[in-house]
Design a protein that fits this description.
The complex is a heterodimer.
Chain A lengths: L1 H5 L3 H25 L8 H16 L4 H13 L4 H22 L4 H13 L3 H4 L12 H12 L4 H13 L4 H16 L4 H11 L22
Helix pairs in contact in A: 3-4, 3-5, 4-5, 5-6, 6-8, 8-9, 8-10, 9-11, 10-11
Chain B lengths: L1 H14 L5 H4 L2 E13 L5 E14 L2 E12 L2 E14 L6 E12 L7 E14 L3 E13 L4 E16 L7 E18 L21 H5 L3 E2 L5 E19 L2 E11 L11 E10 L4 E10 L10 E10 L21 E7 L3 E7 L6 E5 L7 E5 L4 E7 L3 E9 L12 E3 L5 E7 L9
Antiparallel strand pairs in B: 1-2, 1-15, 2-3, 3-4, 4-5, 5-6, 6-7, 7-8, 8-9, 9-11, 10-11, 11-12, 12-13, 13-14, 14-15, 16-17, 17-20, 18-19, 18-21, 19-20, 21-23, 22-23
Classes of the chains: A mainly alpha, B mainly beta.
Chain lengths: 223, 431
């Protein structure tokens, strides 16, 4: 009789198992939530980075770009103060890119900020403010940033890329320009000379019909 | 011998034919053509040596075939050939098992030729990919060696690796191996005139009387043969060093055993060889040293020297050196393309390394391990939203660098990053 009363009923056993599972699952999710990617920064730097991210969100700028810069620094084992400096500069460049480009997608804004990082100037970026509807400038910006990084002067890179853009060049044209320049550089040509040679060979296009932007757009992915 | 000549030449020719890319990714092959000088105490014999090697790698199995043939005075002679299969279990807590099977033929002018089949199993323990040890055992069954029975082979060893492919010192692996051979020698009591072993004639030429020599053997019940339980142990240390376009292999060893089982010329040996890669397909090879006798095969100890060229129809990775230097261009190529289910497939070609990782804004800068898919082929499929992404790659835990073949820019921290543009699938906007 005693042994019967002390044995848990199947229903009770199921409740115990379910309860234990819930505790374990809850514990797991709490653990996942508790991992703060910025926790490797010193407290003061972490606070500053969070303030900068809040500022970006308030200004409807892509805060994910700032978080990405912070994480890049953390995984590359960079000093906290340097990381804060970089995140602050990224916010400033995103603001300048927004001012120069107007209402564009977050990805284009980030690519524009990359051009500014590389050494481009906001007034050069402004040439991309007016665009054909549905056209994006990612490939142009990526090639632009690469050219400056490889030693082409900001002015030369800007005028070449802007001219191609205004001539209606598509992504494939920008990419093949980049590939051709790489080939020339690999064979020993100066990057600036390689750009001048290749830009002459790039076929001209009929300028597309340009439509002005249709008022401010909301950046849906801004946090 | 005609079939053997045909086999060697066919293998050499086959190695020069390009294979489909997917197959070539698993294949390691080379042909060595060298001038070979062998001395066995008498006058040196010089011959041109052809040595083809082919190896096919699968995730848990490796199959290989190699051989060599000598061309001297217009006659081609097969020297040796071996076909091997190795099966490896998955690694659990750094431990894995290995089963090795070999079938080989060795030809010597005097003993005409011997065949051998051997099977071995080993248990390996690895410590963080930089050191390890193993122990194992197996059986070797020689054929056409009338005087030796099956041999029990047990071995154990340890290895450690220093440096990495990307460091200026390169990488070096040092291995120490202890191998025990235990077998029965069978000799005829009366037939001392034939080529086979006899109780009286087979002992070392010490000048002792036959009665004393007979003490080496115990006569069998038939009184027509006598037997001896033989045993010897080899202790060998070897080193493999790769730096830049140079590979060096060296080994030295000592054989323990009594004077009947180990002849004086097989007590100690040292060999060394160097390979200098002119590009990733052609290398200059040279080396020499002394090899101990192989009693199970009936082959005597010999000194040798060689110099020649090695041709690798497809670039060699594991155990060889990627020639592309400096280290920033160690990664030979980098591609990314659309994969099913909205993934991007990253394809990297880099040879002679142990690990490849990528990281970027798409992974929140957390390193992702790229899976090895072939001897120099590495692949990873990851979700990446349409837009521009920054990416870094590193090999063997070295410096993060921008992958080749895509636009780059300086990162904000003193290095470089690659820039990837992921185009949207039709109808999907870039946000």
């Amino acid at each position: 009789m005693i042994s019967h009363s002390s044995r848990p009923s199947p229903r009770r056993l199921a409740a115990i198992v379910l309860g234990a599972a819930m505790v374990l699952l809850r514990g797991g999710s709490l653990t996942a939530q508790d991992v703060d990617p910025l926790s490797k920064l010193d407290p003061s730097s972490k606070f500053t980075v969070q303030l900068l991210i809040d500022s970006a969100e308030t200004a409807k700028l892509p805060a994910s770009a700032l978080m990405s810069k912070a994480l890049e620094g953390i995984y590359k084992k960079i000093d906290s103060r340097k990381i804060v400096e970089v995140v602050r500069k990224e916010l400033a460049l995103l603001r300048e890119a927004r001012q120069a480009l107007g209402p564009v997608s977050d990805e284009e804004l980030k690519a524009g900020a990359d051009v500014l990082w590389a050494g481009g100037k906001p007034q050069q970026l402004a040439a991309f403010r007016i665009r054909q509807k549905g056209r994006n400038d990612l490939e142009a910006f990526v090639v632009w940033a690469d050219l400056i990084t490889r030693g082409v002067s900001s002015e030369d890179a800007s005028s070449a890329i802007t001219k191609l853009w205004q001539d209606g060049a598509d992504d494939a044209t920008f990419h093949s320009l980049w590939s051709a320049i790489q080939t020339d550089i690999s064979s020993g040509l100066n990057p600036g000379a390689a750009l001048q040679n290749r830009i002459r060979e790039t076929p001209g296009r009929v300028p597309p019909k340009i439509t002005p932007p249709e008022g401010p757009q909301e950046n849906t992915s801004s946090r | 011998m005609n079939e053997q000549k045909v086999a060697i030449f066919t293998l050499c020719a086959a190695l020069l034919v390009p294979a489909p890319r997917e197959l070539a990714a698993q294949l390691v092959s080379k042909v060595e053509a060298s001038q070979y000088t062998v001395s066995e105490g008498g006058l040196p014999v010089t011959a041109l040596r052809f040595a083809p090697t082919v190896q096919f790698e699968l995730p848990h199995a490796t199959f290989s075939a190699r051989g060599s043939a000598f061309l001297s005075e217009q006659s081609l002679q097969l020297a040796d050939g071996i076909v091997s299969g190795t099966f490896t279990s998955p690694t659990v807590y750094g431990v894995h098992a290995e089963m090795i099977g070999n079938a080989s033929r060795a030809v010597d002018e005097r003993s005409l030729g011997t065949d051998q089949v051997d099977v071995q199993t080993r248990v390996h323990m690895n410590f963080r990919e930089h050191a390890g040890m193993w122990f194992g055992g197996g059986v070797a069954r020689p054929w056409r060696v009338g005087v030796v029975s099956s041999a029990d082979v047990t071995d154990a060893g340890a290895w450690t690796k220093f440096g990495s492919a990307t460091s200026s010192f390169g990488s070096a692996t040092i291995t120490a191996t202890f191998t025990n051979f235990s077998f029965t020698k069978v000799a005829s009591v009366h037939d001392s005139g034939s080529a086979s072993l006899s109780c009286a004639s087979s002992a070392p030429a010490t000048g002792a009387a036959d009665v004393t020599l007979r003490a080496y053997f115990s006569e069998s019940a038939t009184s027509s043969a006598c037997e001896r339980q033989s045993r010897f142990n080899d202790l060998e240390t070897s080193m493999h060093w790769e730096v830049g376009f140079i590979e060096v292999n060296a080994a030295t060893g000592y054989r323990f055993g009594d004077s009947y089982d180990v002849t004086p010329d097989s007590r100690r040996w040292t060999t060394a060889a160097a390979t200098i890669w002119l590009n990733d397909r052609i290398a200059i090879v040279g080396g020499g040293g002394r090899q101990p006798a192989l009693p199970l095969r009936g082959l005597p100890a010999r000194s040798y020297g060689m110099a020649g060229l090695e041709f690798a129809p497809w670039p060699i990775s594991k155990g060889a050196v990627p020639v592309s230097l400096p280290h920033s261009v160690l990664v030979k190529s980098f591609e990314h393309k659309q994969a099913p289910a909205g993934l991007q497939k990253i394809i990297i070609h880099v040879g002679g390394v142990e690990s490849v990782e990528v990281m970027g804004d798409f992974s929140d800068w957390s390193p992702l391990v790229v899976a090895r898919k072939g001897r120099d082929l590495w692949e990873l499929s990851i979700p990446m939203s349409p837009g521009s992404h920054q990416i870094n790659v590193r090999v063997d835990g070295g410096q993060w660098m921008a992958p080749p073949g895509i636009p780059v820019m300086h990162d904000s921290f003193g290095g470089d990053v690659g820039l990837l543009v992921v185009r949207p699938v039709a109808g999907e906007p870039i946000r």
